[in-house]
Amino acid sequence: MKAANHASHHILVDEPGLLLAQCRCCGEIELYFRNITMALNLIDLYALIRRLDNLATASRYIVGLLDVRDTTVRAGFQAIGLQLTEGERDQLARGLNLACLRLDLDLLMRGRLSPN
After folding, report:
1. Range of the domain at 47
2. Is the pTM of this model over 0.90?
3. Distance between CA atoms of residues 85 and 78, nearest Å
4. Within a domain: residue 101?
5. Would residue 1 count as lying in a domain?
6. In 3D, which of 40, 39, 46 has the Cα closest to residue 101?
7. How many domains does the chain fold into?
């Protein structure tokens, strides 16, 4: 999956099968993974990372996505679950963590994040 160079989005992660981009106007994070598209705010992004990190080791995973959001009303996506293999879970978790690192680096470079 390769991202087009759009001025409206800042590409955080672009690797085969995974794309994370941040909208420059509203800051929303867009996640494209396999055949899944999700829009996440920063709280949702961190919640999804925690969810993936807390899964017990298994060969196949089912991640409840509605549990990531505060309420089911706020859920802006149709899927209520995500089925992943161990490799897919690892790829998604690495990509989400990399996106967070890039967001933190951007804040550091702009002087808006405490060095602590």
Report:
1. 9-109
2. no
3. 21
4. yes
5. no
6. 46
7. 1
d(CA 100, CA 95): 9
- DSSP notation for 67-102: GGSSSTTT--SS-SEEEEEHHHHHHHHHHHHHHHHH
102, part of any domain: yes
What tokens were used for 45? 């992004």
* The two three-digit tokens of residue 88, written as one number: 């897919």
The angle at the Cα of 76, spanning 97 to 1, to the nearest 5 degrees, equals 50
The per-residue pLDDT for range 61-71, each reduced to its tens digit, is 677 665 554 44
Question: Is 54 within 8 Å of 105 (Cβ atoms)?
Answer: no
How many residues can be counted in the chain? 116
CA distance 95 to 103: 12
